[in-house]
């Protein structure tokens, strides 16, 4: 029986960026891809709910052979600050837009998993100048307050009585 060796990938050392008074953690993969393929936009990886930049640790090195790769911990996750504020798609949209504008410096392809997919979609739809492309992986949808169950139609009420 042939076995495949386990892939172990240590997290790439990252750094912090101050955004609205909060520390936001991110990594940038060392890469020659931007020199070899300057026409390719950078790739920004955005984790899902309960995850962090570590979610991408096994993907970054392979992707960095062809792309300039960035990954960010959304506010409230991973090594980023966890302030007592209202978290929302709009908050993460603005965080990602500002990160792309101020740190990456040019539009990026946004690749988001789960909650990260929703945040990436918010950027692409509402701040299109920041998005060179969009990749959604098991994307989540918008959040809202729990809604009461709709009232049953009269016929259904009569039949269940």
Concise synopsis of the structure shown:
The protein is of the alpha/beta class.
Overview of the structural elements:
- Helices cover 29% and strands 20% of the residues.
- It has a six-stranded mixed β-sheet with strand order 1-2-4-3-5-6, with helices on one face.
- The chain contains five helices and six strands; from the N terminus they run ββαβαβαβαβα.
- The longest helix has 16 residues.
- It is elongated, with a radius of gyration of 20 Å.
- Helix 3 crosses helix 4.
- It is an alpha/beta fold.
- Helix 2 links the parallel strand 3 and strand 4.
- The protein has a domain of 82 residues.
Question: What would you call the shape?
Answer: elongated
Question: Mean pLDDT across all residues, rounded?
Answer: 88
Stretches with pLDDT under 50, minimum 5 residues: none
Radius of gyration: 20 Å
Looking across the biggest beta sheet, what order are the strands in? 1-2-4-3-5-6
Helical content band:
25-40%
Would you tell me the structural class of the helices and strands?
Answer: alpha/beta
Number of strands: 6
Distance between the termini: 62 Å
Largest sheet: 6 strands, mixed
Query: DSSP strand (E) fraction?
Result: 15-25%
Q: N-to-C SSE series? A: EEHEHEHEHEH
The quaternary state of the protein chains shown equals: single chain
Number of helices: 5
